[in-house]
What does this fold into?
Amino acid sequence: MKNKISEPLLFEPVLKEKVWGGDALGRKLNKPLPPKKAIGESWEICGIDNECSVIRSGSFAGASLNSLYSLDSKSLVGSLSNNSSFPLLVKFIDARDNLSVQVHPGDVQSRQKNWSIRGKTECWYVVEAQENTKIIAGFNRNVSKEEVIQAIENQSLHELLNFLPVKNGDVLFIPAGTVHAIMNGTFVYEVQESSDTTLRLYDWGRTDSEGKSRKLHIKEALDVITTKYQHNLIINPVTLEIEDGVKHLYRAVCRYFALEQFVFSKDTSISLEPKQSFRIISSIEQDAELIYDDGSITIKKGQTVLLPASLKHVKLEAPKNANLLLSSVPDIKKEITDPLINYGISSESIALLGGDKDHNDLLQYL
It folds into this structure.
């Protein structure tokens, strides 16, 4: 294995069987699904030890993401190399049925409880939503923990939850502590902190093939839950016309990740701005070509590629109707707020990218 990590990395997807899953990952994105299994998630890039992504091709074929991190974290993640492991997890989710009503802890809570080294703040890009689909995100008013406990006991928790209508292309930002549930008929792309700590409040009375219910974590969930009403969980994008035929959209930003989008209305190519961190690119529609100093690589529809931090100069060549999502760990001031202000975007519009004001990481830079 060579030492310097300086080429795009494609990984084998980690497919997760879920009681609420279906077969859309195969039908929509050509994922290699096993027969007769309900597959709910495709983990595209993950550094969690027992679920770690494995590189499928190139100079590092067969190596795990964690082994590359150990080999040369500076080349892989740049200035973030003081982290103990790869910081993000990205996945596709096929919700044929409702996911549980759940919550994730923050960083401090997660470490105090020895659940994980990280909490789990996340965001969702809605790839496809059936007509009249809603997603649960937060409560529909300020509530108390006593009200939540009583509602769970009375089987009336749904009366307190905020059901948000969603459509194709919406982005929802879900800070740690926000009660939530992706509902049936929704196909989403998720960017999150690298953690799989999930605390279930309610699972719709569901049982498995043996009649067993999945474990709930009501006491633990109530320790970390945000009971205040949260504004601006569906994020209004900031859209730039960066070139004839290409829109660059900023979709959500926090200290853990920034989610950006590139939409092509004609066949063309663009140069991607380098970041302080790695860049993760996923193709939602159409195949696209990444061109770098030593070659090129095709990102097929439904595929995800990791650009190491050491790989600065990259062009993206894509056809009409291509739709690509780019995730990174941002330097918020240098890569988000200052450039957008210089472009003429108002501070008010930029602030909306950070979600509810109580959890908004952009406000200190505006």
In short: The longest helix spans residues 65-77. DSSP finds seven helices and 22 strands in the chain. The chain has a mean pLDDT of 94. Residues 142 and 228 are 4 Å apart (CA to CA).
